[in-house]
Amino acid sequence: PVDPVDIGLDSGPCGDAGWGAVSAPEGTLHVSGDEPSHQLDASLVADGSMTHPFRNLADLEAHLAASAEVGETAIALWPGEHTLQPDSAQALAQAGLPVQSCGPETTRLKPAEAGEGPVLTLSGGAHLTLDGFSLSGRPGHPAILVEDASTLTLSNSSVSNDLSAAVILGRSGATLDLYNVEVVGGATGIWT
């Protein structure tokens, strides 16, 4: 187990991989996720630093909404599952920071329990960069929807869906930049 307060530049949350795809841990906003060994003690204030990471994406989103300007260079999601609310991707895109992780084997994006539609939706010209995640779609909906002149850059990731919908759907001027992405299942895989 790794206690977040014991994290340092030489000992990241990614086990033997140290910091994984997190390129600059000191200048990054950190989210510990649901991994029990990475939870910050309840008596400590989570400020998003590498030793006091936010407890979940909702805490990060609240911080981003309250901050006039973000001085960090990236967002790091630690190993475990991270729950995306329907508007989470838009909130992450608004920050303008790449979202990095330890890798798709350990860091999973999952949809909120309630709700319908894609796990990740970008619209209105939003730009989001994700590196090192796995996510699976919901039946009848694409796992990822990018539309309305929005751009998704996705690398070192795995995206899957059942056979009832596309895995990744880009429409209405969407740009998809995919690098080393495993696409599994789906009625059409990637559909533009």
Keywords:
9% helix, single chain, 192 residues, 4-stranded parallel sheet, mainly beta, 9-stranded parallel sheet
Written overview of the protein:
With 192 residues, the chain is mostly beta strands. 9% of the residues lie in helices and 32% in strands. The protein contains two helices and 13 strands. The chain has helices spanning 57-66, 88-95, and strands spanning 28-31, 74-77, 80-84, 99-101, 107-111, 120-122, 127-131, 134-136, 144-146, 151-161, 168-170, 175-185, 190-191. The strands form two sheets. Strands 1, 2, 3, 4, 5, 7, 8, 10 and 12 form a nine-stranded parallel sheet that branches. Helix 1 (57-66) links the parallel strand 1 (28-31) and strand 2 (74-77). Helix 1 crosses helix 2 (88-95). The longest helix is centred in the N-terminal third of the chain and has 10 residues, at 57-66. The radius of gyration is 16 Å and the shape is globular. It starts with 27 loop residues before the first strand and ends with a strand.
Summarize the structure.
The protein is 9% helix and 32% strand. The chain has helices at 57-66, 88-95, and strands at residues 28-31, 74-77, 80-84, 99-101, 107-111, 120-122, 127-131, 134-136, 144-146, 151-161, 168-170, 175-185, 190-191.
Structural class: mainly beta
> What is the number of beta strands?
13
Q: Which blocks of ≥5 consecutive residues have pLDDT under 50?
A: none
Q: Would you tell me the overall average pLDDT?
A: 91
Number of helices: 2
The main pleated sheet reads as:
9 strands, parallel
What overall form do the CA principal axes indicate? globular
Q: β content, as a range?
A: 25-35%
Q: What is the CA–CA distance across the termini?
A: 43 Å
Give the SSE order as H and E letters. EHEEHEEEEEEEEEE
Helix content: under 10%
Q: What would you report as the Rg, rounded to the nearest angstrom?
A: 16 Å
